[in-house]
Amino acid sequence: MSSMVAKVVAGAGFTVLAVFLSLRLRLGLAREIGVAALRAGTQLAVVGALIALVFSYPVLSFAFVAVMLATAGVTAGGRVKGLPRARLRALISIAIPALGATGALLLVGAFDFTARSGVPTAGILIGGALAATTLTGRRLLEALVDEAGEIEARLCLGDAARAALQPSVRKSVTTALIPVIDQTRSVGLVTLPGTFVGLILGGASPAEAAATQLVVLLTLVAVELAAGMLLAELTMRALILPGERIAPLQIER
Amino acid sequence: MAGRDEAEGMRARDVGVTLGERRVLGGVDLRIPRAQVTGLLAPSGAGKSTLLRALVRLIEADAGSITLDGEDIRSFDARVLRRRVGFVAQTPAMLPGSVADNLRHGLDDLTDDALTDALHAASLDEAFAEREADELSGGERARVALARALTRGPELLLLDEPTAALDEGAAKRIGETLRSLCDRGLGICVATHDRHFADAWVDRREHLQ
């Protein structure tokens, strides 16, 4: 049995085990686990085929990254309903830091200037920016409602609208950064992250895997910070009205 | 005399406010002279809070005119307007930190004496300065919010239902505080549906339909 077939069979085996346990313990998760496993298998097969195509025709890597960005923008935009033109603002917040950092990493030679390096690097950074954008946006929109009294009090005391919003903005970005900072702090102690594991399994030396993981993690911190701040800035620009006023919000929780 | 009236205090003429698709206020007139307590009387939901917010441009009126000493309020920097015309909300939010932190917000050069004066003017003991703002009762918050507004040196004060949820004793203290501020020359507008409070403390009445 080839290694690839063995991997698929092992994955299927563990899915069957999880479904069996769910049925046995009457958790009501059997169907959900089965559907999730089928979806994962199908999606990865499609993505694998697409990436194989991209590797054969590198120019397609731009289209592939564009689709990832569009999907991320739609996903994050859907999570920050209430913000005017949410999808566009989310897309901008994700695209600028993720693409900028990918370009920088390729330019300085941290990764080869190839589709094989560029697409996964862009993918992981887009994923991080998506998470930070969503978390910042959700937290900020909730804060603008929950802390509306404080914000109004600051305006009444003579603060500019931007200054009145700043405490809520700072808290939102800080909260959104907690997961990636924790991940960076605990790497190698609590978890072995995906890039490291993937490289080791792929035959890379531990030193090479560690260096790659390190650059990915540290880049992620910067990208997520930039994405969160960018979304916060775009949100403030959308909400601040002439006369140091703040537009009322209607958000879905 | 009409010119003199316009030059003193705040005046709203035929003011209208639309929030979203909804017309919240229309054709409202109001005068808030200095050195008097004006009662803005109306039942709950009539738009008193909206009108007070429009007077300090937290909400923009889309019809009519609002003037301060005869000048359109839109000609002022909104930050300056909000220092000249203090607004205390019905349930005033406290900023994080102590009462002193609240009073000093945005005023790095506020002296201890000025801080104490503001507390006294709001009928608060100076020991209040060190209290944590989020541990105060409703009545204490109302008075701290008043003291906080006073640190800006306002010429007019707008108070939205200042006695809501207060007992009779606390409401009386608020009334006495307003009377004392009024005697110092401040123009005060109290939006209230509490007719007993209005009977006891306001000099003139404006009715919002």
Describe this structure in words.
Chain A has 253 residues and is an all-alpha fold. Chain A folds into 2 domains: 1-56; 60-246, Multidrug efflux transporter AcrB transmembrane fold. Helices cover 79% and strands 2% of the residues of chain A. Chain A has 9 helices and 2 strands; from the N terminus they run H-H-H-H-H-H-H-H-H-E-E. Chain A has helices at residues 3-24, 30-56, 60-79, 86-107, 115-146, 148-156, 161-186, 194-201, 206-239, and strands at residues 240-241, 245-246. Chain A has a two-stranded antiparallel sheet. In chain A, strand 1 (240-241) and strand 2 (245-246) form a beta hairpin. In chain A, helix 4 (86-107) runs antiparallel to helix 5 (115-146) and helix 8 (194-201) packs antiparallel against helix 9 (206-239). The longest helix of chain A is centred in the last third of the chain and has 34 residues, at 206-239. The mean pLDDT of chain A is 91. Chain B is α/β, with parallel strands linked by helices. Chain B has a single domain, classed as P-loop containing nucleotide triphosphate hydrolases (Rossmann fold). Chain B is 35% helix and 25% strand. In chain B, strand 1 (10-19) and strand 2 (22-32) form a beta hairpin. The radius of gyration of chain B is 17 Å and the shape is globular. The two termini of chain B are 27 Å apart. At the A-B interface, helix 6 of A face helix 3, strand 6 and helix 6 of B.
